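Worked example 3. Consider a protein that binds BIS(adenosine)-5'-pentaphosphate.
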Amino acid sequence: MAHFIVLLGPPGAGKGTQAATICEALEIPHISSGELFREHLAKQTELGKLADGYIRCGQLVPDEITVRMVGDRLKQPDCANGALLDGFPRTIPQAQALDDLLARMGAQVEMVISLEVPPEILVERLSGRWSCPNCGRVYHEKNNPPQRSGVCDRDGTLLIQRLDDRPETVWQRIEVYLSRTQPLVEYYRQKGILVNVDGARSIEEVRQSILSILAGVR
Ligand code: AP5
Ligand code: MG
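Given these inputs, the predicted complex is written out as C-alpha cells:
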C-alpha cells in the first residue's frame, strides 16, 4: 500500500528536521512545498519569482499555484509508493485538492502527524536556524549545530539563513498559520487520521515518538 503522510505544524515546529526519519522508515520521498518554491527561486523561474513576493512577507502563495506545483511533483514516478508532504496542505481548499489528486492516483492520505509547539519556542528556533542551500538539511546554532561551524555535515556547502526567518516575518507566519492552517487539525481529526505529537521536546524525543507511531503503519 502507498503511504501518503502529511506533516503538519507551525513554522519552526521541526517538520524539516523530522522528515528524514519518516522518509527513511517508510521509504518514501520528501516533498516540502517551501523547498520546491525555494528551488524555483534559485533557478529564477517565473513561479519562483512570483512565490518569492509572498514568502518574503510571510504570506501564503495562492492555492491554485501551490496545488499545481505539488500536483506535478506527485506525478513523478518516485511517488508511486507514497510521499511525505511537509508544509502542504496549508489551507482547507489545498487539503480538498490533495484528496482529489490522490483519489485520481487510487490513493488517500493515510496519516497526518501534527507537531505541536507553542509560539515563543518557534521564534527561538527560527532565529537560530541555518540551512544547507544544496541538500536542505537544517541545523540550529545551539540545539543542533553542525560539526564545523557554518558548514553542512553532509556535503560541505556553506550554510545560509532564510530571509523569512527575521522575527517580524516569523510572527506574521505564525499568525497566518493560526488563521489559515490550524483549521486543518480539525479537518483531519474528523477524518480520524490525525496524530498529535508534542514537538516542544528535544529532537531525539520527538523522533522516538514518531518512530513508535510509524511502527503501526509499516
Ligand atoms: P516552509 O519552508 O514550509 O516553512 P514553514 O512551514 O514556515 O516551516 P519551516 O520550514 O520554517 O519550519 P520546520 O517546521 O520545517 O522546522 P525545522 O525542522 O526547519 O514554507 C516557507 C514559505 O513558503 C511559507 O511561509 C509560504 O509563504 C510558502 N509556502 C510553503 N508551502 C505553502 C503552501 N502549502 N501554501 C502556500 N504557501 C506555501 O526546524 C526549525 C529550527 O528548529 C531548526 O533550526 C532546527 O534545528 C530546530 N529544531 C527542530 N526541532 C527541534 C527540537 N525538537 N528542539 C530544538 N530545536 C529544534
Ligand atoms: Mg521546513
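Take a moment to read the result before moving on. The radius of gyration is 16 Å. Residues 3-117+181-214 form a domain with the Rossmann fold fold (CATH 3.40.50.300).
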